[in-house]
Structures are given as structure tokens and as C-alpha cells.
Write a structure and sequence with these properties.
about 80 residues; single chain; about 10% strand; two-stranded antiparallel sheet; 4 helices
Length: about 80
């Protein structure tokens, strides 16, 4: 019984992680209008929360947010 509970717990975690990753990718893709793999300052203007965090998220100061940088976004 404990093995069954453990298996279901792992399955639930895997499904949850997949759903979160899917939401993350969908939001990034929605904001990346020109599909260059980055969110520019102009593209970020679509999302008030992202715009407020833009400078802190752009850790390499290249005036665009990569997927890696976007992972720190807190909506």
C-alpha cells in the first residue's frame, strides 16, 4: 500500500511539474511576439507585472529577457 501511495505521489508531482512548465512556456511564447526567443522591453509592455520587474529580471543588462531570466518572474 505504501508503494502505491508513493507511486501516485510521484505521478502527481510529475503531472504538476509538466503543467507548470507548460504554463511557463505558453506565457513566454505569448509575450515573445516576434518569436526570437527573448522578451524585449517593447514586448514586456503587454504585461504590467513583467514590465515592473523587467530591470531586475534582465540580469545581463542586454535589454531583453531570456527564458532562463524569465524563470525568476513572479506574477
Amino acid at each position: 500500500m505504501q508503494q502505491l501511495i508513493a507511486a501516485f505521489s510521484l505521478l502527481f508531482l510529475a503531472i504538476s511539474a509538466t503543467a507548470l512548465a507548460s504554463t511557463f512556456n505558453a506565457r513566454f511564447a505569448f509575450l515573445d511576439k516576434n518569436m526570437d526567443g527573448y522578451i524585449s522591453l517593447i514586448e514586456a509592455q503587454q504585461d504590467k507585472q513583467l514590465l515592473q520587474q523587467f530591470t531586475s529580471l534582465d540580469t545581463n543588462n542586454d535589454e531583453k529577457i531570456s527564458k532562463k531570466e524569465f524563470t525568476a518572474f513572479k506574477p
